[in-house]
Amino acid sequence: MTTVSPYPWRAQGPSLGNHRLSHPPGTWQLAWVHPLQVQEAKNQGSSLPKEFKPTQTIIKKPVQAEKPPRAAFIDPLTAMMASPEDEDALGCVSIPADDEMDGVKSAESRDADWSKSELEALWTQLGQSAMTYHDSTRLLIPETLHYILDKLNFDDESTSRNARLDMLEGRQTRRSNPEKNGLTPKQFGDFLDLVTHQLSNYWTEDKRVQVLRLVIQIAKILGDMDKSGLSGYPAFFFQITEVLVFFGRLVYDRIASKCPGLRMNFTSHDATPQAQEMCKNWLLKIMSIRELVPRLYLEIAFMRCFRFIDDPEYFYKTVLDRLTKSIRGLSDPIAACYLRAFLVRSAFQASSSSHTSHLVSIKRQAWDCLPRRICDCIRRLFNGFSKPNFLGKMLGTKKSLNAVDTDKCPAFVYEHIFAVLSPSLIEGQVSHVSHVVANCAQDPSYSVENLICVFGKVLTNCYSLTRTEKLNVLNTIWHCVMDIHDLHAYLKCALVWTEFAVKQLQPKEINTLLGNIVSQTNSTLSRDGTKSSSDQLPKIVQSLLSSQDSLERTLTLSNFLPLFNTMSKGSQIEMAKILVERAIKDVQEISDPVLSNVLIHLCDILGDSINALSIQDETRQISAFICHVIRKVKFEDDFEQQLKFLTDCRGKYSHLTAVQLQLIHSVHLLAIHTLERANGKISTRIKGFLQACCAFVFITIPSIDPRLTQVQLCIEAAEVCLMCRCFGQAESSLKVLFKTLGELGQAHEANRDLRERKELECTLLGLCSQLFSLLLVVPDNVEHGILYMIRGALNAINRFPWSLHSAHRAELNIRALQLLSVVTWDDYPYHIEGLDSNDVLYGSNPKFVDEVNQISGTVLGQVLDQIQDLTSNGFKKESGRLSWQLLQTCYGFVDLESSEKLVKLAQKLWSLSKKQNELQPQTDRLLQEVKLRKDERATMWKRVLL
Amino acid sequence: MASANPIEIIFDRPSRTYHEGETIQGSLRLNNPTDLKHDGVSLTLNGFLRTFVPAKSAIGNGASKIQSLTTFEEMLLNPGKLPQGKHEVKFQIPIRANADRRALLETYHGVRIDIQYILVCEIHRGILAQTFREEKEIFVELKSEWSKVSETKPYQFHITPDKLEYAKRKLMKHVPEFSIRGCLDSTQCSMGRAVQGTICVDTCTRPIKSVEIQLIRSEQVGVDDPKDCTEVQNIQIADGDVPRSLKIPLHMVLPQLFACATIKSADIRVEFNINVLVILDDDHIVAESIPIDIYRHH
Fold first, then answer.
1. Is residue A941 part of a domain?
2. CB contact under 8 A, A273 and B240
3. Does A319 contact chain B (CB < 8 Å)?
4. What is the 3-state secondary structure (H, E, C) of A154-178?
5. Whole-structure pTM value
6. Keyword Protein transport: yes or no (chain A) (predicted)?
7. Closest Cα of chain A to B154: distance in Å?
């Protein structure tokens, strides 16, 4: 029994009869060649292969690898239009009211070259790409076809598992219900396989009515699809048209079978009356279908059969003409376009080459009505419109522009034109075009924002406009933009046009624009009551950043801050970071009050964004930003203002330690600068100021977290206070220092981590040495006794819980000895300007010197105890080192003649030092030096050492 | 054996369409699997006009009347025996009206009026055995005699809200603004051809759901009987909201059986109308009714 199949190229076996295949089987090219072209038609039944096994998918990948399916979908009509290289052929698009379509003739000649096989290849390629492109859309099958749908087995694993579950629970299987959810293109392909199988069954059983009914229902799907809002139209279109073509072939074969011995180029006269009768009957049946879409599709599928009853000339003149025009009755432009594509393809297939002139006219008519609504194929059509000549035609003269007014060339067409326009083409026309755009805004059915955006983008890159032109355009367009009520759309346009203004116009205009944006946004937000969550505003701000002007000028635009504040909180923080970072890089010194205001405002926002939940890195980054900004803000000569600023900052950023640190340093710097500038003439005002600075620091230090930093800061503060002649402050600082040391000691005692202890102690060693250096110049307070400060320091140090068996305390004491020695000098090696240190106060008073000696003695005793301790505990190296240091101190600072005990001490120390091998080079050096010395003091030393 | 029908009637014309005065030529093909003993093979052509008048009151059925237009009977084969196998018997039947009757009428299947010509072939097999019977309808066409047949009278129409006639004044408020222009190529339509024209929706403030063209027949049996208008077929011209100012062709092929040339005679009248409908999205319909004359052109 012969079975029929729509897809002859799917035949597996070699049983293709006598037909020579022009392409190998299994490929996508049309394997089945029209029998009438090859040889005489067979008499018995269908000339299709005998064995037919439906494969699973309708469209499968091609065997040859040279033609991979293209990812980008090119709709058939674009493809059928001339390729972009041939610009004249674009005259196929009929722009009404003008004779500028001089391209028609060349189009004709070009179409004559287009062979059927090319078209077929293109068609199949498009079908494949449609399948891959629209893989996820779903199509609902109408109920009339559900009986076929039920036969389809969906091999969905979850279905079977859930089906069992549902059955157990007594529920109806609902999952993956194709009737409710629709079919994917692949599933639809399987479904259509079943449909064609059913069609073949009906046909062989001679149930022509059922065949027709089924085909009508299938064709109806194409008409109803648009109403369900489907975007995957192409995928289903290609599959359904295959079924329709199959049907057409069935009918044709049946009619042809009634004409035995039909020659290749037969005319209607060759057809037998039976064939003609049958053809007419089929035609009548098809023409009486009520619905437009199935009727048109079936008429087109039936096209080839017209040969039996009419001559081709008549056919092309009337029937094709009528069909083309009837498609205008389809309101959905997508469906209409695809129907036209099917028409053209079928017409090509049915025709021979002599009739292409008619086909060209069809194509022109097919393009006669540009659909009003946005159409997928139109968009792609315009990809080919970037050729200058064509655009020159379209926009060249005003006349043609007027012809292409809103009625004939609706706004959305402009939109797509502009998208591919190069700016040079629009230059001479700018004002006219802007008026056209403004007119388009009047059209209530079209939302003009896309057009405005695209227009703006084009103009942004257009560099040869004059200033007046630019302003005019901006004015015109901005009026339209202001009328847009939807905030999102408004902001989209505003963004594009802000970029235009930034690139092309002066800050003044940018400012006005921003002002408008702000007021519009605010009024909309207050009216709607919703928080602006759009990301457009940050984009606008960022576009401002890209301006060629300096950042300063941008930030100082009067409307910048309002714009910034309109953004949502999150975006504000983001933008603030970006802006501050840029500012830090670009701006060296911030003295302009407006700019500093803006930056401070940004810093405030950043500072406020830090809370207990912020991550450490964020805190660090933002603190760094703020510190930078603080450093850069300068108030020129107004130091009081600066101090006020720093005080404000302290209040605002109290939670950021790094910033507080920076503030303290800034205040110190400020004080010193002020002092320098005062040049020795310290007025009351300046003195007050300096005291204020010191007070600031004094207050701020305790809030710094790590105590060690506090210690350091106290020392620094004391230095600065002394330099500023705020003695009281200096003393307080030092007292605080000792207290902090005590607290530090308490914490240190509790700390068991050996490495941390060691680190701390080393740091402390350095700090205390620094302290000693400072204490040299600290004058005594009469109330508190001699060397009160130094004694306090020594007490603090000795009370500190140094690690057991560490040499630090001893080292510090040795350094203290050095200090004490220098304290007795007549003239200290360094002074602080304007401050009388102890050398002046005491003037080497003998009583003073005695006191100092006493203290030294105590200290020395402590050192010797320490050394003893170390030696007895086996830390020979440490003790040796310490002894050497002590010896050095003695050598440098001690007068050996004053006491015999000292000589003995020196000798002992010398012997201890010599025992250490690594100290050998140093001891040798000392020996050398002593030998070479010729003065009196040296004799004593020579006695000791040698 | 009895269930298989051995008779097949083949006509010389596959369309089975004849005119008055012509002769139906054809052959009977008998294919009996076994020997067949019969009492004669007869061939009858029965042409009749059947009219149906519905009851005037609610009770009772309507009256159905059959008038015979042509009757012709012929005994093709005398009683005898047909051996097994295929046999072919040629026949010729003239088509002419009965003597008393007026001219033949065209084949027409309508609601109240039915004109049919049926060719019946019977193999009589006595009282006890089942008679084999095969019938086929043939189609009779008559040439139209009007002198104005070749004239084309195009019909232009322009539908605007003020030209509408309403049953109720109330509906006036809901009428949207619209302007629909169109034309029929001719109000004289030929049976074998299609009714053609164009329609163009200039403006319409409401979206349009569909534009359709409808063929309406109106039948009248007798003078007293009111006209009965029914729809023959409905062809959709446009689907959805059509673009404005665009000419869309109207095209409807007249059906073979359900329409015929306009009949205006004493006892029956069959006339046709074309309705162009524009259905708006709120299911209101704007329609233009155009009376047409159908003739048969040769």
1. no
2. no
3. no
4. CCCHHHHHHHHHHHHHCCCCCCCCH
5. 0.50
6. yes
7. 18
